[in-house]
Amino acid sequence: MLKENTYNMPEGKLIIFSAPSGAGKTTIVKQLLTLNPLLEFSISATSRSMRENEINGTDYYFISADEFRKKIDNEEFLEWEEVYKDQYYGTLKSELERIWLKKHHVIFDVDVVGGLNIKNAYSKRALSVFVMPPSPETLKQRLLNRSTENDESIKKRMDKAHWELGFADKFDLVLINDKLEDSVKKANEIVINFIKQ
Ligand code: ADP
Ligand code: 5GP
User: Fold this and answer.
1) 47 has pLDDT over 70
2) Ligand 2 — pocket residues by CB below 6 A?
3) DSSP-derived pairing of the beta strands 173-176 and 44-46
């Protein structure tokens, strides 16, 4: 669900990386952040539980489902999704303000529907990139290797991935994430070109 776009500051672009879970978008976005000091990560809010290696306020703002629903009622989100049952994810409007005030460009790591919604709201000011795994089998293997999901969660993510792959051609660009080093290099070129436009 998308809230109306009320942010029309003259500076600051939006760079959106979307993909099925496990395709590698977080890995690519993290590397881009180390390569380009003008980029700043939009920290999403979520009601899912925190993974062992995650930091509250860095990876996500971890809040309860009740708190999340209150923020929906208060219209604090630019967009939000119930990505999995009772697991909400959303972009807080305050994140864009925070980042643009620093004269940085916002980089997003969001699901496919969220990515398309943000792109539709900001049009040419936003670049949407779909990170494509080389194959569904590789996607599943990456989820298994990440060791963050149980069997049920992997199944949920794979079921959703098959549906999400059908949205790739709605994005400005598709980036095949086969060899990580090549993908990061390509992603960085894409971002640099877009920022200087
Ligand atoms: P997403 O953010 O899309 O859910 P992640 O960035 O968490 O995906 O990546 C999923 C797993 O795949 C992680 O363990 C990550 O280290 C690994 N990974 C990412 N890109 C590649 C790649 N090009 N080759 C092999 N493994 C990768
Ligand atoms: P994970 O639980 O693996 O961190 O994320 C699950 C999915 O939710 C991923 O596809 C991730 O990109 C997406 N996601 C993360 N933040 C947001 C957000 O703010 N909005 C939307 N729509 N999806 C998000």
Assistant:
1) yes
2) 21, 44, 48, 79, 81, 83, 89-91, 109-111, 114
3) unpaired
118-169 pLDDT, tens digit per residue, is: 999 999 999 999 999 999 999 999 999 999 889 999 999 999 999 999 999 9
- Among all bound ligands, the one having the nearest atom to the CA of 185 is 1
Instruction: Write the residue with the smallest CA distance to atom 10 of ligand 1.
Output: 22
14-196 belongs to CATH 3.10.100.10 = no
Ligand 1 centroid to 105 CA: how many Å?
23
Spatial distance between the Cα atoms of 189 and 4, rounded to a whole number of angstroms: 31
Task: With beta carbons less than 8 A apart as the criterion, state whether 7 and 121 touch.
Answer: no
User: Taking the domains of the chain in order of start, what are their residue ranges?
Assistant: 14-196
Q: Write down the pTM of the prediction.
A: 0.91
